[in-house]
Amino acid sequence: xxxxxxxxxxxxxxxxxxxxxxxxxxxxxxxxxxxxxxxxxxxxxxxxxxxxxxxxxxxxxxxxxxxxxxxxxxxxxxxxxxxxxxxxxxxxxxxxxxxxxxxxxxxxxxxxxxxxxxxxxxxxxxxxxxxxxxxxxxxxxxxxxxxxxxxxxxxxxxxxxxxxxxxxxxxxxxxxxxxxxxxxxxxxxxxxxxxxxxxxxxxxxxxxxxxxxxxxxxxxxxxxxxxxxxxxxxxxxxxxxxxxxxxxxxxxxxxxxxxxxxxxxxxxxxxxxxxxxxxxxxxxxxxxxxxxxxxxxxxxxxxxxxx
Amino acid sequence: xxxxxxxxxxxxxxxxxxxxxxxxxxxxxxxxxxxxxxxxxxxxxxxxxxxxxxxxxxxxxxxxxxxxxxxxxxxxxxxxxxxxxxxxxxxxxxxxxxxxxxxxxxxxxxxxxxxxxxxxxxxxxxxxxxxxxxxxxxxxxxxxxxxxxxxxxxxxxxxxxxxxxxxxxxxxxxxxxxxxxxxxxxxxxxxxxxxxxxxxxxxxxxxxxxxxxxxxxxxxxxxxxxxxxxxxxxxxxxxxxxxxxxxxxxxxxxxxxxxxxxxxxxxxxxxxxxxxxxxxxxxxxxxxxxxxxxxxxxxxxxxxxxxxxxxxxxxxxxxxxxxxxxxxxxxxxxxxxxxxxxxxxxxxxxxxxxxxxxxxxxxxxxxxxxxxxxxxxxxxxxxxxxxxxxxxxxxxxxxxxxxxxxxxxxxxxxxxxxxxxxxxxxxxxxxxxxxxxxxxxxx
Lengths: 307, 443
Fold this sequence. Notes:
The structure holds 2 protein chains of 2 kinds. By secondary structure, chain A is mainly α. Chain A has 2 domains: 4-54, no CATH class; 73-306, MetI-like fold (Orthogonal Bundle). Chain A has helices at 10-28, 33-54, 70-75, 79-110, 117-129, 132-143, 149-156, 171-196, 201-208, 213-242, 245-250, 262-272, 276-306, and strands at 56-58, 64-66. In chain A, strands 1-2 form a two-stranded antiparallel sheet. Chain A is flat and about 65 Å long. The two termini of chain A are 46 Å apart. Chain B has 2 domains: 41-160 and 318-392, Periplasmic binding protein-like II (D-Maltodextrin-Binding Protein, domain 2); 161-317 and 397-441, D-Maltodextrin-Binding Protein, domain 2 (3-Layer(aba) Sandwich). Chain B has helices spanning 6-30, 50-57, 59-66, 77-90, 102-112, 119-123, 139-145, 168-173, 182-191, 212-219, 239-255, 265-273, 287-290, 332-342, 345-354, 363-366, 368-373, 378-390, 401-416, 421-441, and strands at residues 41-47, 69-75, 97-101, 155-161, 163-167, 200-203, 277-282, 302-306, 316-325, 358-359, 391-393. Chain B is globular. The termini of chain B are far apart. The A-B interface holds A 59-63, 144-147, 161, 163-168, 171, 251-257, 268, 271-274 and B 82, 85-86, 88-89, 108, 111-112, 114, 198, 206-209, 257-263, 267, 270-271, 274, 276, 400, 402-403, 406, 410, 413-414, 416-417, 442.
């Protein structure tokens, strides 16, 4: 016996289908209420409240005054904020590109068979497991210009000591070193997972055709790995944009304001100066920036997938 | 004349029999009793520091004395400041007692009237122990705890003075005397600086925000002394402020270790403890780690002196903390008991002799026996007494103190980088003026 709707003419079958969906929605719609309440309370309400605060002049402990888009206007003329955007982009670019390069290279190495490979892999991913604040405190001690181990090592090999995070010109690259040390293993793990899933046939065909190792990597491995690399890229970019703990613990945005990224600026406005309205405007602009970058990366990912 | 009936006689007799109990009850209400709030509980929110650690260690004493249970938390300084401000602003703070950094939050707390006025409790003989001795608190400390409108919304707990630490060996090696003025300090520090031996004449805070108190140490010695006038006008780009900026720049550029631009007190402490710096100006709380033989290479060789004098005055920076009781607290009585115990003479003496900091009371400094038994030299205690005499608030009593420190602090770090002090202070003053004006309009 066929489905009852199959016996009905087209329009009637469609109407019957729609009716069933309505019944289904009426009967089971209540099941999404708990999830809806959570989404409303945890995501939508804070967002709506942030938008509400961003159009007010509001200091903790003080009154609230509606100021329209004044906070946004001030933000785009605030040199300190604009510089923090530049520093964020500079830091993010370095903190994404370097772990991507090193992580991919490490994955290629760890994909090969060699003695004690398992142990080496474990050691390599250890930094990723460490607490960022603890990591930052240890690096702070190592960066000390007179008493830190890094300058001792440099002088042992005849190089001049560096000021590391204690100089405006070297502070961001130095913070990137910590970020690279901490997060390269994550990229390695993602790419290594990709490498493990690659098919063997294309390599056999390439070998028969006489392709060199570089040609096999360039024309087979890399294109097939690209979706995994793009995933790692998206995760790294969002993580680097959000970086706060390491920077705050090591430099607190200094020397001066030379490592003050948007996150540090936002933290100071909100929780040191208690300018909640202004800080909310920063959140909205920062969110727009993250969404734009994520959209750009997703678009790239789709292009790669469809290529 | 009414007759004496049997009923009247019985009433009078019953009254006479009950009298001692009634008298005792009335007396109990009038006399102070540590057990009055037995069975109650208070919540205390404190900044994590050696003084709070001492209070927590001796908390069982209080609980035994009063029968009041205490739930005390210790939170690192910066996070604690944010936490209590946000909790107060929420209108329902989770604590009854709170430790407040007067040099940062005094005006903010006072303006919002977040803490209750303690004066009525201090004056209430049923609530305050007879041996509390309010007169024992230093006048400066009491003034620091008192708001402009006369309300005393915290009880002074700790006073911090900036003092001069010096390495006796380094000074003796070059036969250099302890400097009496800032100019002498610069000359001595310059003479003691030898980068080839990684030895520097001076170390001090260079990190933005933290560095402002070193600059204000110099400014306190000038004619103008303060950073804000009594009518709340900024005085941070005046000739005196520029002189202080130049002194800061000279010391940090010519005599301090490379990288000092990013030094907070902890990096300064490490440098001084390793014997790499001859002079260090900072708070009084560092004597304990400096004299710790297990950690410090300069233990037993540290000299203590009041900060040198400026061209017009001789002052040192004063900072401090106080304990307040939340206006929203429904347990003000037990909370007051905790506060008066926390700053009693015994605990204040413990602060001093353990090197946890300078107490707000005067009596610990007069306790010769305890001072003799202390592991710190007499010179340290003399420096504290002398500093108390010349102490003056090191930061302006304004609401946006952190923003002030950040803005002026950024200018100071630029000076360490070589920027012109006058131009930097002018720029910073212009940047901060609208913030201060807006804050004052909100008063």
